[in-house]
């Protein structure tokens, strides 16, 4: 079973993500965080336990407490302590060229995706996720 973290405070996108994974009949464990700080704390506690870490993180950029950019800064410092490689996908409703360019300059980011995500995109990520 693949483990996904969704770090997003948009309840509609969270609902749609759950539904899409369910309809696609993917065997997943989805954990949702509504801000980057909570997700970072969870990752820090699980850093040396690969079975508890996600295979994939879907990360929104605009959130309260700690936004996606702040999460990426903190995660970049933490990445070397992770006991497995985690793919991080930025998911944004913005199609801002500056955000896309900025995301491409951050080594821990796998890709920048525009909301909403299609079922085929979930399947592609699910099939490619490192386990």
Q: Which features does this protein show?
A:
131 residues, alpha/beta, Rossmann fold, 5-stranded parallel β-sheet, 5 helices, 5 strands
Blueprint of the fold:
Blueprint: E1 2-7, H1 11-23, E2 28-33, H2 36-46, E3 56-59, H3 68-78, E4 87-92, H4 97-104, E5 109-114, H5 119-128
Parallel strand pairs: 1-2, 1-3, 3-4, 4-5
InterPro entries: CheY-like_superfamily, Sig_transdc_resp-reg_receiver, TCS_response_regulator
Pfam families: Response_reg
Modified residues (4-aspartylphosphate): 60
Description:
By secondary structure, the protein is an alpha/beta fold. It has a single domain (2-128), classed as Response regulator (Rossmann fold), CATH 3.40.50.2300. The chain contains five helices and five strands; from the N terminus they run βαβαβαβαβα. The protein has a five-stranded parallel sheet with strand order 2-1-3-4-5. Helix 2 packs parallel to helix 3 (68-78). It is globular, with a radius of gyration of 14 Å. The modification 4-aspartylphosphate is found at residue 60.
CATH architectural type: 3-Layer(aba) Sandwich
Give the distance, in angstroms, between the N- and C-terminal Cα atoms.
Answer: 9 Å
Instruction: Report the sheet with the most strands, covering strand number, pairing sense and barrel closure.
Output: 5 strands, parallel
Give the integer mean of the pLDDT values. 91
Number of helices: 5
* Share of β-strand residues: 15-25%
Task: Please provide the count of β strands.
Answer: 5
CATH superfamily: Response regulator
- In CATH, the topology is named Rossmann fold
Output the helix-strand order: EHEHEHEHEH
Low-confidence parts: none
Count of domain modules: 1
- Residue share in helix: 40-55%
Query: CATH top level?
Result: Alpha Beta
Secondary-structure-derived class = alpha/beta
Strand order of the largest sheet: 2-1-3-4-5
Radius of gyration: 14 Å
Shape: globular
Protein name: Response regulator
Keywords: Phosphoprotein
Domain Response regulatory: 3-130
Pfam family, one: Response_reg
């Amino acid at each position: 079973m693949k483990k996904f973290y969704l770090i997003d405070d948009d309840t509609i996108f969270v609902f749609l993500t759950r539904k899409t994974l369910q309809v696609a009949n993917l065997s997943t464990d989805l954990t949702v965080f509504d801000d980057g700080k909570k997700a970072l704390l969870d990752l820090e506690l699980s850093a040396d336990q690969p079975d508890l870490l996600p295979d994939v993180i879907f990360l929104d950029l605009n959130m309260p407490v700690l936004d996606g950019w702040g999460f990426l800064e903190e995660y970049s410092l933490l990445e070397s302590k992770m006991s497995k490689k985690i793919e991080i996908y930025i998911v944004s409703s913005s199609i801002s060229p500056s955000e896309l360019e900025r995301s491409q300059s951050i080594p821990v980011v796998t890709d920048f995706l525009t909301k909403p995500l299609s079922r085929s995109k979930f399947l592609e990520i699910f099939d490619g996720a490192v386990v």
